[in-house]
């Protein structure tokens, strides 16, 4: 009986049909499950929300050619909440505006509510601060000279500061009339290190100050200037003179000549004002024939900071005197152009 059952072709036909239906059901069940999972993910993405805080510039809607507005912040924070995709796009593009509309306001102080423009209706937002206080004044402009300020005690002892050189000597100051009228000076303040002894060059941000040194809320054009402050040691040009020193040779007279007729001397003003020439001592001891010497000028006066040039070539001309004189130290002061000092001249003058 069982052999006849399995020998029937219908058994295999029914079994094949069952297997086919089972495979079909298995495959479609996976597709349906994947579809349901995909739909759930899509629905989650659509329903997901996001909150961000965006720093946005504040725009002032006013006749800024006629009025000068103060008191408002440059940027405000906007907290945006809504669909995650929309919020992310907004965060990346920031294609919205925060505006303070002052068009219908008059001169004076006002509290203004900020407006946000360009946001999707599907998003909610909150502006911080929601309102601002502004002061509206008539706008005026004025041209003013720039004053250079610096700490004079920072300059090294003995040095002085010259007149500052500015890239722009005059600037335009714009603001409320009440602020412009309070301006005492437009200051370019230099920062000097202690014991400054070299030229200073700095780019400085300008400030409008009142008589108490307080900064005023005005606009300065240009905002910066380049300042060069020359720092130098006081100097003076003086002629060279020569003074004979040392033990002169018997029967010899001396004359001094040099191509260096004058020098620049550097030092404190109190030292320079008492010097009308630089006296150079020439030691003639042991010199009995015409000789050339290079004299160090920097060690002549210890009160001087520097002498330029630092040395001078001097020709010591030696000639025989008409009369003999006893050996003794002799001295005479001569000019650098051409002069003579004789050990016998002083002796002959005394005999007269």
From TrEMBL:
Biased segments, Low complexity type: 328-352
Chain spans, region Disordered: 325-352
InterPro entries: c-di-AMP_regulator, YbbR
Superkingdom assignment: Bacteria
Gene3D superfamilies tied to this protein: 2.170.120.30, YbbR-like domain (2.170.120.40)
Annotated PANTHER family: CDAA REGULATORY PROTEIN CDAR
Protein name listed in UniProt: YbbR like protein
Lineage, top ranks: Bacteria, Bacillati, Bacillota, Bacilli, Lactobacillales
């Amino acid at each position: 009986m069982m052999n006849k059952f399995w020998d029937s072709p219908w058994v295999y036909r029914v079994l094949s049909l069952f297997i086919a239906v089972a495979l079909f059901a298995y495959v479609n069940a996976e597709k349906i499950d994947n579809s349901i999972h995909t739909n759930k993910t899509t629905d989650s993405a659509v329903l997901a929300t996001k909150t961000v805080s965006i720093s946005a510039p504040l725009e002032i809607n006013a006749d800024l050619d006629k009025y000068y507005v103060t008191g408002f912040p440059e940027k405000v924070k906007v907290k945006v909440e809504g669909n995650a995709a929309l919020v992310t796009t907004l965060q990346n593009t920031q294609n919205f505006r925060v505006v303070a509309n002052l068009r219908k306001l008059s001169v004076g102080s006002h509290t203004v509510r900020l407006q946000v423009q360009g946001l999707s209706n599907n998003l909610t937002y909150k502006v911080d601060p929601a309102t601002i206080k502004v002061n509206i004044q008539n706008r005026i402009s004025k041209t003013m000279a720039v004053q250079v300020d610096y700490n004079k005690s920072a300059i090294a002892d003995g040095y002085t500061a010259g007149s500052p050189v500015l890239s722009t000597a005059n600037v335009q100051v714009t603001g409320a009339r009440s602020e412009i009228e309070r301006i005492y000076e437009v200051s370019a303040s230099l920062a000097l290190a202690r014991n400054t002894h070299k030229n200073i060059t700095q780019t400085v941000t300008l400030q409008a100050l009142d008589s108490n040194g307080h900064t005023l809320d005005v606009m300065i054009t240009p905002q910066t200037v380049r300042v060069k402050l020359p720092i130098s040691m006081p100097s003076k040009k003086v002629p060279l003179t020569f003074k004979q020193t040392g033990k002169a040779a018997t029967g010899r007279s001396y004359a001094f000549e040099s191509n260096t007729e004058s020098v620049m001397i550097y030092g404190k003003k109190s030292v320079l004002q008492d010097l009308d020439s630089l006296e150079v001592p020439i030691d003639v001891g042991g010199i009995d024939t015409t000789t050339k010497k290079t004299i160090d000028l920097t060690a002549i006066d210890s009160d001087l900071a520097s002498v330029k040039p630092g040395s001078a070539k001097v020709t010591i001309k030696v000639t025989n005197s008409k009369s003999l004189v006893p050996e003794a130290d002799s001295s005479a002061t001569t000019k650098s152009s051409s002069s003579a000092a004789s050990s016998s001249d002083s002796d002959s003058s005394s005999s007269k």
